[in-house]
Amino acid sequence: MQDIIRVCDIEKYYGNGSRVTKAVDRVSFTVEKGEFIGVMGASGSGKTTLLNMLSTIDTVTSGHIYYGNVDITELSEDQLSDFRRKNLGFVFQDYNLLDTLTMEENIMLAMTMRRKDREEIKERCEELLSLLGITEIRDQFPYQVSGGQKQRCACARAMVNHPQLLLADEPTGALDSRSAQILLQTFTDMNRKMGATIFMVTHDAFSASYCGRILFLKDGKIFHELVRGERKRRDFLNEILDVLSLTGGELSDEK
Fold this sequence. Notes:
Structural class: alpha/beta
CATH class: Alpha Beta
Distance between the termini: 33 Å
Number of domains: 1
Largest sheet: 6 strands, mixed
Order of helices and strands: EEEHEEHEHHHEHEHEEH
Strand content: 25-35%
CATH architecture: 3-Layer(aba) Sandwich
Helix content: 25-40%
Radius of gyration: 18 Å
Strand order of the largest sheet: 6-7-8-3-9-10
CATH topology: Rossmann fold
């Protein structure tokens, strides 16, 4: 498989003088095209900082991050903004949908901003509405639908421009158990049927058990790695819980 991302010996420091905190400590790994990878760790382990650097929201203190042959640590602010718009999709815990637009319009907006052809926009939107099971709410506004439906709309919006990488930051955090399961199955379908490459930060073992590979962070370093392989999800979940008991992560499998 093709590596689309190479993270090479990155570090991130905050503060200055005697009050310096090392949030990420010489982390290296690769993400392959079509991979569904999760990152776990206790609060303060560096997982959100890592996602922010991969998403170009934050910058590295040292080291390099490559998307293909592009070293994003060498890009200017304008170049980063352009790269982010063209190559990355985002799913946040709080949805980030526009309340004045319908669900369909929220999805279409991302393509409209890229000045895509009207027919192409319509066709792509139809495809995603169907795949994510939200065709029946296309004309409703965010305040009229459930949290799970809003999050699936956010997934459609994130995927509409065929991003190299979909970044998800605690995507099930605001959802009830049933909605969380539906969303995680949606991620699985996007990964398998659309070839989406997904990088998900989560504290929740149940959510992580849907991933194909998990990196565990502790004190800003990769402490352990698990690969699901052919194991059943329940067996993988038990392995995750075993590792979390060593990292100080939250033992949540209640969904």
